[in-house]
Specification:
Elements (H helix, E strand, L loop, with lengths): L2 H13 L2 H7 L4 H15 L4 E4 L2 E4 L1 H25 L6 E7 L1 H6 L1 H11 L3 E7 L2 H9 L5 E5 L7 E15 L6 H5 L7 E2 L5 H12 L8 E2 L3 H9 L5 E4 L4 H5 L4 E4 L6 E9 L6 H14 L10
Parallel strand pairs: 3-4, 3-5, 7-8
Antiparallel strand pairs: 1-2, 5-11, 6-9, 6-10, 6-11
Length: 298
């Protein structure tokens, strides 16, 4: 078994087709098929189950796949490290929470893009759980997520501190009024959002159990629904400052440990830290005033 064998396994598994894998690998299907057969014979186990609809991994293939994917990431990182001469360039693909994107990143990204025009920042949003999964899978160089986060494959740096507040419609003026709401609903991001979990815990501390949550994909949609009296939510104070100033919502302070959350930046410990990402993180730490051993601030 060699590097090419594992690359072939990863490509076939991803496409579910030896023909499509062959096209990606710039070879013919017969070469892919013969290499898979030879690998299976050498290992003494079947890696794929063949059918008229394509191929699927067997249990043995599923056990092997993470190593093949890890090797592909290492090869891509090796190539990136070889090309990286210290001058920021290329694509910098990172992930972030919707709230962090709205509150913290626009000015930082604008300044960075102006200072380093050879870099193309690509920013993708998601929940903490989905962002962490994408970083571990090598789909993102790193991501801003809600702490605490702990994972043996990740380097984790605190970058921002946020205060969370309970957000209601203007008609709900006190926490006592929240407790009096019949059929209380929460308006939240999709499953995997850490703010959503904190909101459930806070309501439980008040003896409240909300109905099935209403899920939305944007801050604006959540604030609009809360303003209309559909339900309540938990968001960083800075994110809802304008809506509060405009009288669209009412904001309620919540006690520790529900009120304070760290925003962390996570990346794989075994990945290459590109010059572009290193410099961008330096600017993030300068802006926030939070420094860790993970990034040296010039």
């Amino acid at each position: 078994m060699d590097v090419i064998d594992l690359k072939v396994v990863e490509a076939v598994a991803r496409h579910g087709s030896m023909n499509k894998a062959a096209a990606e690998l710039n070879t013919v299907q017969s070469n892919v098929s013969s290499r898979i057969r030879a690998l299976e014979a050498g290992l003494g186990v079947a890696l794929f189950q063949r059918s008229a609809r394509g191929v699927q991994l067997t249990p043995a293939g599923r056990r092997m796949l993470p190593y093949a994917a890890r090797l592909s990431r290492l090869l891509a990182d090796a190539a990136a490290a070889a090309r990286d001469d210290g001058t920021p360039s290329g694509t910098m693909e990172i992930g972030t929470l919707e709230t962090t994107l709205a509150l913290r990143l626009p000015l930082l990204i604008a300044r960075f893009a102006k200072a380093y025009p050879e870099v193309r920042p690509v920013v993708r949003t998601g929940t903490t759980s989905s962002l962490i999964r994408d970083v571990i899978d090598g789909k993102l160089e790193g991501a801003f997520a809600a702490g605490p986060v702990s994972h043996p494959e990740l380097q984790i740096e605190t970058v921002f501190h946020e205060e969370l507040v309970l957000v209601t419609s203007p008609a709900v003026r006190t926490l006592e009024a929240v407790c009096a709401i019949l059929n209380l609903k929460t308006v939240v991001f999709r499953a995997g959002c850490s703010y959503r979990l904190r909101l459930d815990s806070f309501l439980a501390s008040l003896g409240l159990v909300a109905l099935e949550p209403l899920e939305f994909g944007s801050i604006d949609a959540i604030i609009a629904c809360v303003s209309a009296g559909v339900g309540v939510t938990l968001l960083p104070r800075g994110v809802v400052a304008d809506a509060r100033q405009s009288g669209l919502i009412c904001v309620h302070e919540v006690p520790a440990p529900f009120s304070h959350v760290e925003t962390v930046f996570v990346r794989r410990t075994d990945s290459h830290l590109s010059s572009a990402l290193a410099i961008f993180l330096q600017s993030v730490h300068r802006e926030s005033g939070v420094q860790t051993a993970g990034v040296r601030v010039a």
